[in-house]
Design a protein that fits this description.
About 45% of the residues lie in helices and about 15% in strands. The chain has about 180 residues and is of the alpha/beta class. The longest helix is centred in the last third of the chain and has 17 residues. The termini are far apart. It binds zinc ion. Zinc ion binds next to helix 5.
Length: about 180
């Protein structure tokens, strides 16, 4: 497909989306009260709304390749919890994650220069998964690291301490569709 065809297909998809049920959209114009915040991978196979069978207005979603967390992502979680009143924060990795796979294969190119772009993602994950022995272990270690990054945000830490929000860790299995929560 050419890009012109791709954009045309997406536009017609949007036309199909516009037609039914304008009521929900009208209601959401007044504001959003999402059930949960989900921080997960950008992988096209990992679509939180589909995975959890929810729709518009129900999840506040932050996605990066490898679900890595920097200031912008933790600031987004801070916004969801601190301003939208989201109490459940889910940090979700997934099986067959390309970013975690690249880090496991030693895909980052040294630390002689400050990492940026994709390199920054891979070095972040490489640090996060050091010492892990399997892909499954690496995915969980990477989730733990993302959680630790969120905990570096003082506002998030305060909300957690005050019992106003909780962080849940999970891994989505792209084969079975199952989301496994873990401690
Ligand atoms: Zn991924």
């Amino acid at each position: 497909m050419t890009n012109t065809e791709i954009i045309a297909a997406l536009k017609s998809g949007n036309d199909a989306f516009i037609k039914p049920s304008t009521a929900r959209r009208a209601e959401l114009v007044k504001g959003q009260h999402p059930l949960a915040a989900v921080l997960t991978c950008s992988d096209s196979r990992v679509v939180p709304e589909e995975i959890f069978s929810v729709s518009l207005g129900e999840l506040f979603v932050i996605r990066t390749a490898g679900n890595v967390v920097s200031d912008f992502e933790s600031g987004s979680v801070e916004y969801a919890a601190g301003h939208l009143g989201v109490t459940a924060i889910i940090v979700m990795g997934h099986t067959h994650c390309g970013a975690v796979g690249a880090a496991r294969e030693g895909g980052h190119h040294g630390e002689t220069v400050a990492p940026h772009g994709l390199n920054a993602i891979i070095s972040e994950i490489t640090r996060a998964i050091s010492g892990t022995k399997s892909a499954a272990e690496a995915v969980r270690a990477n989730v733990n690291n993302s959680v630790n990054r969120l905990l570096e945000n003082r506002e998030i830490l305060e909300l957690l301490d005050e019992g106003k929000a909780e962080i849940y860790k999970a891994v989505y299995d792209i084969e079975t569709g199952k989301v496994e929560f873990f401690q």
